[in-house]
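Session log. Operator J.P. requested a structure for one protein chain; no other inputs attached. Running the standard single-chain path with token output.
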Amino acid sequence: METEHSIVAPGHGRDRSRWLRWTALLGLVVALTSLPGVGLADDDENKKKDKQTASLRESSQQQTIGPIDDADRIRIPDLTEKPGLPPDTVATPVDNFDDRVRIPDLTEKSGLPPDTVATPIDHDRVEQIGQLVGENTWTDRAPMPTSRFGLGLAAAQNGKLYAVGGYNNGGAQATVEEYDPDLNTWRARVPLPTPRSGLGLAVASNGRLYAVGGNNGSAFLATVEEYDPATNTWTARAPLPTARYALGLAAAQPCKL
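Structure written below.
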């Protein structure tokens, strides 16, 4: 005997009522998740955006531009204080840089100006120059044999000095004395033909000395006399157009006074 089974379709009785409630609930969930900002996916996305916004805001605050502290500035090396050169070295300008041997470590990495190379200091040469220039001191030398004032003094081409004429208690002088700087000695030379003081004395390009003008103790003179150191002789020359005393005298080219 067959047993009949009755199947209740969703559309009948309590099953239908339950089915309708679940359907409505499902529709509500779908409707809510479709709204902006609602649902799991949207919630994760919004959290990610919030984190990015906070990160940008924090970065912006840290990068705010403000006054520069002097300690943060880039310091340009002071070449006079710290040129980066080895000891006993100076910076020397180069006329033609291509003609000089480049020293890479010094010309490229020491902060020197363009077209400059480092040149070692020659201490021996510096000492020699110091000796030539001196140390701003005076040294006693052999005294002039005949004391006087108002004399003429000139350096001849032979490297010697000539003290000519002058005045002392004996009146106008004709004395001529020669000084040798190498030997530090004086010697008498032939006297000036015309004793006088306040004369002009100069060495012309011909190597001869010219004693011009002066005063003999009673009058101004126009006298001109030429001295030749090679022969130790005096020769009278054409007189000055205007007699005078304590004049200035200088040699010019070619062989003129």
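Operator note: Residues 1-9, 101-109 have pLDDT under 50 and may be disordered.
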